[in-house]
């Protein structure tokens, strides 16, 4: 049995993880961290009490779906206590990413911008598609619920990074006015509406044909399941940085 604490336990993903974990026998949520008070079936600590919470519950791992400053706070506590860290939070700046690198010198850290297995299958099809359609224009679009803070999504940034393995381009965030498309650009379109869980689409368009690669998460349970799988796998690894692909390939 893998025991985990959730950083951001009162959020949309915190709730989805608690729900998914309650259906599994291999993992148990023993506490959470969030700024607001909450009456849950596990104790909830304030971010300033992260070290105390970890010392008291001695979890095998912490799963983090919060905000970047909250991730940094809990990462430091995990490094100090020797606890594995799964990071789902998106929107880090370079300094935040450096803290995760530093944390991984002490403990195993697995960060993924998307814990849906379908997204990883999509990412793996992207290279061959770009290789086969070298002259085609590429555009990326993501759509999320109206409560999402960061844009473009972490997954969209991962998709752009993957494209950059195959092409040199400038990312153009939407277009306005007179702005004809250049050959070496990728448009990055962002939509926020309703309670859409998360949609990503890449089009490769030539003359007279369009290849569309798309993924739609229909329930946050799909991210929660992946994050729990990642935690169960990560606790057996040594200090270092890991990706969700490592869990999928294991
Ligand atoms: N990698 C993936 O597969 C996925 C990643 N995400 C990412 O996860 C993150 C959270 O998403 P979502 O659950 O929708 O967001 P929510 O806004 O619903 O939840 C955020 C949670 O973080 C808590 N929080 C705020 N500040 C801190 C802090 N300093 N320390 C600890 N906890 C804090 C909030 O508490 P309070 O309510 O008290 O403010 C809340 O519990 C986002 O970055 C999102 O992009 C989301 C889905 C999938
Ligand atoms: O905030 C969300 O909801 C999501 N965030 C992740 C991202 O930024 O890519 C993953 C998923 O699309 C849902």
From TrEMBL:
Keyword ATP-binding tagged: no
Gene Ontology annotations of biological process type: diaminopimelate biosynthetic process; lysine biosynthetic process via diaminopimelate
EC number of this enzyme: 1.17.1.8
Binding site for (S)-2,3,4,5-tetrahydrodipicolinate: 145, 154-155
Pfam families named in the record: DapB_C, DapB_N
Pathway membership: Amino-acid biosynthesis; L-lysine biosynthesis via DAP pathway; (S)-tetrahydrodipicolinate from L-aspartate: step 4/4
UniProt cross-references to InterPro entries, sorted A to Z: DapB_C, DapB_N, DapB_N_CS, DHDPR_bac, NAD(P)-bd_dom_sf
Matching CDD domains: DHDPR_N
Catalysis: reaction(s): (S)-2,3,4,5-tetrahydrodipicolinate + NADP(+) + H2O = (2S,4S)-4-hydroxy-2,3,4,5-tetrahydrodipicolinate + NADPH + H(+); (S)-2,3,4,5-tetrahydrodipicolinate + NAD(+) + H2O = (2S,4S)-4-hydroxy-2,3,4,5-tetrahydrodipicolinate + NADH + H(+)
GO MF entries: 4-hydroxy-tetrahydrodipicolinate reductase; NAD binding; NADP binding; oxidoreductase activity, acting on CH or CH2 groups, NAD or NADP as acceptor
CC terms in the record's Gene Ontology section: cytoplasm
Dihydrodipicolinate reductase C-terminal domain: residues covered: 118-248
Biological role: Catalyzes the conversion of 4-hydroxy-tetrahydrodipicolinate (HTPA) to tetrahydrodipicolinate.
Assembly: Homotetramer.
Name of the featured protein: 4-hydroxy-tetrahydrodipicolinate reductase
Biological source species: Halovenus carboxidivorans
